[in-house]
């Protein structure tokens, strides 16, 4: 049996995915979680073969969960199922050790096939997205990404500095670097463009 932990913040979708996967003879959904922090706790408790997660969730994102799995060298493989058809997200997911990346509008049977492929040690990546991911370079470094994400949430330079343990001058430098790299006029435009490309 392939033991699955399902992390998805939309309850109806979580229930539907669990029911669909439960109909497969060789797949067992051993647990579900509605946010990133509870997914992390369940992951450690249940030690499933595969974590199926969305990207955007409260607490920890699917990418942050994948990074934790990688950092703690857990045996669980990570498959992301998302609406974000953006190459930037896929590149970051692959960097975090994700072995499956599918879009939510894919046929249900493709998810079951992908889980079998990943469980057998392979990769299951949406092919069109894979092509797009290698066409465009993400110019931001991790700290610029962090600062820009918080700025996009409406935090001031002072708030960002306090949150990240940096000086306000350093925060302004990171924002200015990000704005320059993206070739836009201000932090809001930089945030919008980076979100659109899947770099945040």
From TrEMBL:
Span of domain Response regulatory: 3-119
Gene3D superfamilies: 3.40.50.2300, Winged helix-like DNA-binding domain superfamily/Winged helix DNA-binding domain
Record-linked InterPro entries: CheY-like_superfamily, Sig_transdc_resp-reg_C-effctor, Sig_transdc_resp-reg_receiver, Tscrpt_reg_LuxR_C, WalR-like, WH-like_DNA-bd_sf
Pfam families, sorted: GerE (PF00196), Response_reg (PF00072)
Superkingdom of origin: Bacteria
Residue(s) carrying 4-aspartylphosphate: 54
Protein keywords: DNA-binding, Phosphoprotein
Keyword hit for Amino-acid biosynthesis: no
MF-aspect GO terms: DNA binding
Gene Ontology biological process terms, A to Z: phosphorelay signal transduction system; regulation of DNA-templated transcription
Annotated ranges, domain HTH luxR-type: 133-198
The protein, known as: Transcriptional regulator
């Amino acid at each position: 049996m392939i033991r699955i932990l399902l992390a998805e913040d939309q309850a109806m979708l979580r229930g539907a995915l669990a029911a669909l996967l439960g109909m497969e003879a060789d797949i067992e959904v051993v647990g579900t979680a509605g946010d990133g922090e509870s997914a992390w706790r369940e992951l450690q408790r249940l030690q499933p073969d595969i974590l199926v997660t969305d990207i955007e969730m409260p607490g920890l994102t699917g990418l942050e969960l994948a990074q934790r799995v990688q950092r703690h060298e857990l045996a669980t493989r990570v498959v992301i199922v998302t609406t974000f058809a953006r190459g930037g997200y896929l590149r970051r997911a692959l960097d975090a050790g994700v072995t499956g990346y599918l879009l939510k509008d894919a046929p249900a049977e493709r998810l079951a096939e992908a889980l079998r492929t990943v469980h057998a040690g392979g990769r299951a990546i949406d092919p069109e997205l894979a092509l797009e991911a290698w066409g465009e370079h993400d110019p931001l470094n991790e700290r610029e990404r962090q600062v820009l994400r918080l700025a996009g949430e409406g935090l001031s330079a002072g708030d960002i500095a306090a949150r990240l343990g940096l000086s306000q001058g350093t925060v302004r430098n990171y924002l200015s670097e990000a704005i320059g790299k993206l070739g836009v006029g201000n932090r809001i435009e930089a945030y919008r463009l980076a979100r659109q490309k899947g770099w945040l």
